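Q: What would this chain look like folded?
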Amino acid sequence: MEYLALVLTGLAAGLLGGCLGIGGSVIMIPAMHILLGPAQHIYQGAAMIVNLFVVVPSVVQHRRAGVILRPVVRATIPAALLGVLLGVWISDSRWFHGADEIRLARAFGVFLLYEAAYNLYRLGSGRVLPEMREDVAAGLPWWRTTLLVGLPTGLIAGLLGVGGGVLAVPLQQLVLRIPLRRAIANSAATIIVVSLVGAIYKNLANARAGLEVMRSLQLACVLIPTAMVGGYWGARLTHVLPRRALRGVLVVLLLYCGMSLLKRCERVAAGDPRGASPAPSSAISAGVSVGSAALLEPAGRVLPIC
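A: My prediction, written as structure tokens:
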């Protein structure tokens, strides 16, 4: 059941990530917490790998639709790269490791609730920004695009293991006045580079900290196939689906995932066994696996891996 749940998690993350230009970590990381128990750094390492595979098919679709503003992307990528390196460095500090890893999980839970509140606000707002052409985008102030969009996008991506689109999309609308569909496309194009560099750095940092990087790779192996399918179709739906319906679904998911993650963190902090990994299914306990490898959880659980 855990294997099937992760496969479906990849699909949901891909659909929402591709459609909203957010990568998909806001779905994947809390889902892994709920399914497999606390291991924030491992899950961030896995999610940052998967984000790359979510946005590549998305960018193909956005490019075909002609909605990527290249001047904006060229300005955000360098600053976002600096931000993601800084974010991973901060997350790798002693303040977020060992028993204190729960602080990072709490920060992620609070971030999910913030995103739910923001999307709920946008859901109730009927404001639509005017279309923007590339020549207009080329005239946008450089410092706004880099310092107020690119750098914060990379920083939050590296610190929390997200794609960064959860911040890049609203910041483009707020700071640069870029309409939603173009902001989503620009975000997806930026995430390709940010996720690649961030995933490499995060997993190297995990290895230096003595964490099992192979667990992140195995989880990514399970999530990637359906996440890619979801990312492809999600990007296509960006240009046809009503935005309000999609935001409504995202708000419900963010609220559920954020509250569930924070509750689990509090249980772990209180020593409540319900905050640890849930009991394994009988099939997993018996050692039944799909493929040739298996992921061993600290509590002795075995998750089948392709």
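The first strand starts at residue 293 and ends at 296.
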